[in-house]
Write a structure and sequence with these properties.
The protein has 475 residues and is of the alpha/beta class. The protein has 14 helices and 16 strands.
Length: 475
């Protein structure tokens, strides 16, 4: 079945089999039966966070890597195990209430769509999908079936990000006309496609790992376990990895929809890996919290961000920290959300800067308070922070990722139990993901401004539209 048929079929199923929201408003004493697809690396962290909720029973575990599956099984000995999520749904759909999807990006939509076809609540890791067409299809089926959904952008529920959203919406720097955001992480690859093949490890089902993507020979260390993020067929580059986290607060605070134009300044496409350095410029239509148009510039890769006056901090002669020799980060460092704290006068390693009529607001990524800058000087906003925190019952900031990180997951569980609402449902996450993916696509047409028609879901530049979707391989 090709992707177009797959998406049409699932949408049709959603239309005729819509479920009432009360299905997920379970009785207070009921427990949530959860299945988890993808339990290695970030999936292992997701598994620990979801299962830490007192009302969760982990009933099924699924992974194409038997080593990951065995490790998860030790933690949840009563859960059934599978290598193929399709078999899992066929055998025990009636015993599952909610599904967590923590696979590589290219499997997010196929696994999530199948879960939603079966009427399951879904928590899916970011970015929501690998293709724009999938993001729109997932939003539709979630809405048609009235399902509880959440995208895995756990810092969305952190104190500093909620605070920054409320500060911007209170008008602390007036109407915002520019956002600059950055991450020096490198989930790109400028080298050639590897030649030949290696024996597939006995612990890995390579066919199931490829899933709906095109068939390709296995090469040790190139795709599995983590480097798939660098590659066109499986990941979304640094923009799709860290950009989702760092875009989230400005996107949410300014109540943005999708952009009108996108420009990616990067190297020429190779057809295999994402560019290691990108400067992506978006233009968004006006909202209540922006100027007539909003300019958004994203920088990623070694050395990011590029020097700019908007990023110059008090006490600094340049926008960036002192130049230093760039060292390739380890896999664990790349997968970490944390950023190091820089001294005064130095930009945080990762973050965003809002530029408005009445100054700038710096938002480090993450677990650091936002700071206001006016006329080259920091301005004390402690009173504003205290007032907003009190008005919105934000509590005190807690600088402990282990405890704070669980909140976003627990919010999803509580929403399934009818006790809360998700703050990153697919209705929101699909638009944020679409925005990110448009920038990723622009990297295939470097230094060319692309024009996006949201209503028609197509670019004005016809040659670009083929990248909005891809055929699904039968596997």
């Amino acid at each position: 079945m090709d992707k177009r048929t797959f998406l049409k079929t699932t949408a049709a199923l959603a239309a005729v089999a819509a479920l009432p929201s009360s299905l997920w408003a379970l009785a207070k004493n009921d427990r949530l039966k959860v299945a988890h697809i993808g339990v290695g690396n970030m999936g292992a962290a997701d598994l620990n966070a979801i299962s830490s909720h007192d009302m969760v029973d982990m009933v099924a575990l699924c992974d194409v890597d038997s080593n990951y599956l065995a490790a998860a099984k030790k933690l949840h000995p009563n859960a059934k195990t599978y290598t193929d999520y399709r078999v899992m749904f066929k055998e025990m759909s009636d015993d599952i209430d909610a599904v967590i999807v923590s696979t590589p990006d290219h499997t997010h939509a196929p696994a999530s769509m199948m879960a939603m076809e079966h009427g399951k609540a879904v928590y899916c890791q970011k970015p929501l999908t690998h293709h724009v067409s999938e993001a729109r299809a997932m939003r539709k089926i979630a809405e048609d079936k009235n399902l509880v959904t959440q995208m895995g952008i756990q810092v969305h529920s952190f104190y500093d990000y909620k605070l920054a959203t409320l500060l911007i919406q209170s008008g602390i720097i007036g109407k915002v006309h520019t956002v600059r955001a950055w991450s020096p992480k490198n989930w790109g690859y400028d080298g050639p496609e590897p030649k030949g093949s290696d024996p597939v490890p006995k612990t890995l089902d390579w066919n199931l790992w490829l899933g709906t993507s095109a068939e390709r020979p296995y090469k040790d260390g190139v795709y599995h376990p983590g480097n798939w993020r660098k590659l066109l067929d499986y990941g979304c580059g640094t923009l799709g990895d860290m950009g989702v986290h760092i875009f989230d607060t400005p996107y949410n605070a300014l109540k943005l929809d999708v952009p009108k134009t996108i420009l990616n300044e990067c190297r020429k496409p190779t057809g295999f890996g994402f560019p290691e350095n990108n400067i992506v410029t978006y233009e968004f239509p006006q909202t209540k919290f922006t100027a007539e148009t909003l300019k958004w510039v994203w920088y990623d890769g070694p050395g990011a961000p590029k020097d700019h006056e908007d990023l110059k901090l008090p006490g600094s002669n340049t926008a960036k920290a002192e130049s230093k020799k760039v060292k390739e980060a380890t896999l664990d460092e790349k997968m970490s959300l944390e950023t190091k704290v820089e001294g005064d006068g130095k930009l945080p390693d990762q973050g965003a800067m809002f530029i408005g009529e009445k100054g700038r607001l710096l938002l480090p990524h993450f677990m650091q308070l936002p700071r206001k800058i006016v006329d080259g000087k920091y301005v004390d906003i402690s009173e504003e922070i205290a007032a907003i925190s009190k008005e919105h019952n934000l509590g005190e900031p807690i600088r402990n990722y282990d405890s704070e990180g669980e909140k976003h997951y627990h919010q999803f569980v509580d929403a399934c139990l009818g006790k809360d609402k998700c703050t990153a449902p697919f209705s929101y996450a699909s638009r944020l993901t679409e925005t990110i993916l448009l920038g990723v696509i622009a990297g295939r047409f470097p230094n060319k401004t692309l024009h996006w028609d949201s209503e028609k879901a197509k670019f004005s530049e016809d040659e670009v539209n083929a990248l909005l979707e891809a055929p699904y391989r039968e596997f």
